[in-house]
Write a structure and sequence with these properties.
alpha/beta, D-Maltodextrin-Binding Protein, domain 2, 2 domains, 12 helices
């Protein structure tokens, strides 16, 4: 075997060091160049809704801070699956961003044929807002708070019902979670959307419902609905006098949350910068005002914290699905 001279070893070492340096430099250059082209935020719901409004608010500010156009694309259908799938199959470069909401996790339990694997194909970036829902009843229902509602339904098993926008909707899940925790026999009446569900509640066709604080505020003030409790652990600034369910039922918590995710394999530097920009924007007074108008509460997280939150959500709703038969609307 031919020996390698000391000088040859030095030259080989220098060449290898130069190669490594070039590779590292190239990687840093790519990371520092992000974003290198327009970004696209994909929303799985129609324009004008809460999810679309909050995504567009962040898109405007991200465009200013990142120096690239940020386009919001609505790809409605299948409760957000179509939009998430488009990002799950995008290039892993951080230029395609998905607006993730609470159904992003529950879809993995409701739909057995998802075209993507949430846990393998997508990466968490940031959790930035949560929207509490308020448990309301028709004024003819004698219950004035959560405890009275629970006692009333328990004393009249099967007599009362509640409405929702459809099977597998957040409202359906919120009430089933409460019913499971305290042992309620209350019938679920699914409607084709939130508007007919609300109409049914106002006419006392159904006695209870879960609605957004903003959507229900004027109806509550007019005495057409009575608020009993807020779904999140904390009270809502919109209805500060309405207690959280957890104040009566310890451990209960449910919300409609919002966050951003990207394709798995996206460079860590891109994820880190996007996370920092969203958190920074979220702390500005202007964004605080916009989020408050939606009845939402601002949140801040690292990518790791958002990832841990997603797993907690999967475990919470997974336990419910094991014990309560829930199917999604076709």
């Amino acid at each position: 075997m031919k020996s390698v001279s000391p000088m040859h070893r030095v030259l080989l070492g220098a060449a290898m060091a130069m190669s490594v340096a070039v590779t590292v430099f190239s990687g840093l250059a790519r990371a520092q160049a992000w974003p290198a082209k327009p970004l696209r935020v994909t929303v799985g719901f129609v324009p004008g809704g809460g999810a679309d409004i909050i995504a567009r608010a962040f898109a405007v500010e991200l465009e200013k801070s990142l120096g690239q156009p940020v386009i919001v694309e609505n790809r409605a259908g299948a409760n957000g699956v179509i939009a998430m799938d488009s990002v799950a199959k995008s290039a892993p470069d951080g230029h395609s961003i998905a607006l993730a909401i609470s159904s992003t996790v529950t879809n993995t339990l409701l739909k057995k044929d998802l075209p993507y694997d949430l846990w393998k194909d997508l990466a968490p970036v940031v959790l930035f807002a949560t929207t509490p829902l308020v448990l309301v009843v028709h004024p003819d229902v004698p219950a004035k708070n959560t405890r009275e509602f629970i006692d009333l339904v328990k004393a009249n098993p099967g007599k009362f019902n509640y409405g929702s926008p459809g099977n597998g909707s957040p409202i359906h899940l919120f009430q089933e979670l409460l019913s499971l925790k305290v042992g309620l026999n209350i019938k679920h009446i699914p409607y084709k959307g939130g508007a007919p569900s609300m109409t049914a509640t106002l006419s006392n066709e159904v006695q209870a419902n879960w609605v957004s604080t903003v959507q229900s505020l004027s109806l509550i003030q007019a005495g057409k609905l009575r608020p009993l409790a807020i779904s999140t652990r904390m009270r809502s600034q919109t209805l500060p006098d309405v207690p959280a369910v957890a104040e009566t039922v310890p451990g209960y918590a449910a919300d409609v949350w919002f966050g951003f995710m990207v394709r798995a394999g996206t460079p860590e530097a891109a994820i880190t910068r996007l996370n920092a920009e969203v958190n920074r924007i979220n702390k500005t007074p202007a964004m605080g005002e916009r989020v408050a108008k939606l009845g939402a509460i601002q949140l801040y997280s690292t990518p790791a914290e958002f990832g841990a939150f997603l797993k907690e959500e999967g475990e919470k709703w997974g336990e419910l699905f094991k014990r309560v038969p829930i199917r999604a609307d076709d």
